[in-house]
């Protein structure tokens, strides 16, 4: 690997740096640590990986589980501790063993829709990291039915939860994340994209035996961040088995991925460009970078020097203490006595919520209620020091996404436009690389409040790219109503409204 390839990967981690040096590990901090520790493992262009030919790599996988264990009733949650009154939907949680020999088990939380659940599709949500919890982040801070209150003990309803329009599974993956575990310690040294995708596929086979009423139901996979790998890869496994066997155990219809990490080098370029476009970087600094960096593997020392004001050692001195997940959002301040408070006010958003969630899931009452292993020390994100990069299409996910579009899946990508972790600028470069003909050009879309919710464009094969205006990396956290409108449109396969209802 050249010096510059290592530098690119480390610089990606710089863009993902956490605003609080002493904060609990979060998605941004985890990605920074992960990329720094694994930078020298990134494969060179041209190296093979299992996603080059998904059918050959995964088509042999089973289409049903031989010895299903567990039961729906055993996983039923009577009530979550601290939940508000009049909860009108069913909740389930528990473990699904995906490897009997090793004792590897994944933890899930499932919420049915309160409105005619039997007619609603099934959706699997995956958070990224790799190493972050879909339970703590996706379910409790983004799109789930509840939010954890500042006391860390009680819950409030999220009026714009995605289970309003779908039945949603939140899966903690891979083993070692959240409540998921393995009885074989060496499993933690063998994690990677391929293991994660296959385990998630096996999870689905077992889960459908536990919930047989969902067999044949329209199924979608959604996620964000490093789920820009997880979601297309799991979809590729499912499609590969379908093509190889002619059987369709999950009835997968499409994928919906927000602020995805798709291409390391494009993320490097897009992140720098985003900082300049939003007035964080000076014209002179950007001109120096543009002159000396081609954003490819051939860049040298002059490029390194040009971007050095934004490297790991200088980033917060140069840019300031801002949240790279949303450069306009308040940050969480941690006082010397350990208390936390927001630096400012943003309606509906609390940057300290990760602390509330951590306290909640480390309560024994909560762990008992959700059927988790008691006395587990739970965290939003878990550092994964051993990750097999050779299992990943590390340079770009574009070929995998293109393959899914060619095989008839509904593929929508969306970007909150205030995120510098996986910025909209980077995603647009990957969309361009798909080289798909535009069928419905870029135009605004509207939320029910008659405000522009964002912008959207559709391409051949139904591939769709959308922005969500005023949102950061975790779109449902920053813009819950707009995210629900876009998600509902995706499920219906129809673009969101093109005009305001208030227009004459």
UniProtKB/TrEMBL annotation:
GO terms for cellular component: vacuole. It comes from the Eukaryota. The keyword Iron does not apply. The keyword Signal applies. GO terms for molecular function: serine-type carboxypeptidase activity. It is an enzyme of class 3 (hydrolase). InterPro entries: AB_hydrolase_fold, Peptidase_S10, Ser_caboxypep_his_AS, Ser_caboxypep_ser_AS. Keywords: Carboxypeptidase, Disulfide bond, Glycoprotein, Hydrolase, Protease, Signal. Its EC number is 3.4.16.-. Residues 1-24 form the signal peptide. One of its GO terms (biological process) is proteolysis. Belongs to the peptidase S10 family. This is Carboxypeptidase. It comes from Setaria viridis (Green bristlegrass).
């Amino acid at each position: 690997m050249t010096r510059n390839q290592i530098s690119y990967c480390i610089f990606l981690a710089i863009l993902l740096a956490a605003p609080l040096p002493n904060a609990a590990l979060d998605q941004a901090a985890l990605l920074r640590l992960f990329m720094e520790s694994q930078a020298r493992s990134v494969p060179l262009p041209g190296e093979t990986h299992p996603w080059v030919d998904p059918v050959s790599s995964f088509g042999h996988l089973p289409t049903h589980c031989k010895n299903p264990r567990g039961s729906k009733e055993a996983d039923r949650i009577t009530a979550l501790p601290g939940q508000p009154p009049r909860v009108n939907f069913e909740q389930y949680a528990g473990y699904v063993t995906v490897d009997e020999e090793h004792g590897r088990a994944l933890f899930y939380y499932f919420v049915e829709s309160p409105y005619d659940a039997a007619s609603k599709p099934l959706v699997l949500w995956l958070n990224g990291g790799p190493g972050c919890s879909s339970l703590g982040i996706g379910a409790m801070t983004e799109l789930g039915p509840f939010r954890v209150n500042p006391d860390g003990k009680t819950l409030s309803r999220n009026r714009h939860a995605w289970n309003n329009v779908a039945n949603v599974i939140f899966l903690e993956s891979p083993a070692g994340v959240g409540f998921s575990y393995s009885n074989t310690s060496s499993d933690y040294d063998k994690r990677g994209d391929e293991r994660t995708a296959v385990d998630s596929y096996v999870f689905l086979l077992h889960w459908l035996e536990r919930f047989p009423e969902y067999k044949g139901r329209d199924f979608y996979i959604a996620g964000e961040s490093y789920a820009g790998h997880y979601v297309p890869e799991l979809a590729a496994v499912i499609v590969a088995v379908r093509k190889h066997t002619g059987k369709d155990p999950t009835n997968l219809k499409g994928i919906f991925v927000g602020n995805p990490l798709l291409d390391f080098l494009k993320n490097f370029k897009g992140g720098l460009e985003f900082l300049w476009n939003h007035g964080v970087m000076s014209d002179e600094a950007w001109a120096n970078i543009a002159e000396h960096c081609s954003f490819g593997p051939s860049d040298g020392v002059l490029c390194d020097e040009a971007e050095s004001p934004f490297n790991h050692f200088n980033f917060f001195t140069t840019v300031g203490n801002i949240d790279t997940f949303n450069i306009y959002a308040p940050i969480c301040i941690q006082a010397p006595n350990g208390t936390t408070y927001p630096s400012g006010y943003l309606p509906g958003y609390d940057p300290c919520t990760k602390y509330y969630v951590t306290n909640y899931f480390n309560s024994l009452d909560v762990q008992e209620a959700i059927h988790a292993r008691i006395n587990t020390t739970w965290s939003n994100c878990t550092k994964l020091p051993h990750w097999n990069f050779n299992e990943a299409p590390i340079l770009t996910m574009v070929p995998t996404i293109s393959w899914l579009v060619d095989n008839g899946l509904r593929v929508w990508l969306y970007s909150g436009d205030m995120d510098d972790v996986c910025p909209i600028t980077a995603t647009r470069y990957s969309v361009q690389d798909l080289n798909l003909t535009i069928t419905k050009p870029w135009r605004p879309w509207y939320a029910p409040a008659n405000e522009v919710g964002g912008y959207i464009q559709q391409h051949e094969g139904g591939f769709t790219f959308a922005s969500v205006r005023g949102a950061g990396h975790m779109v449902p956290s920053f813009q819950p109503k707009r995210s629900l409108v876009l998600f509902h449109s995706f499920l219906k396969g129809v673009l969101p409204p093109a005009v305001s209802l208030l227009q004459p």
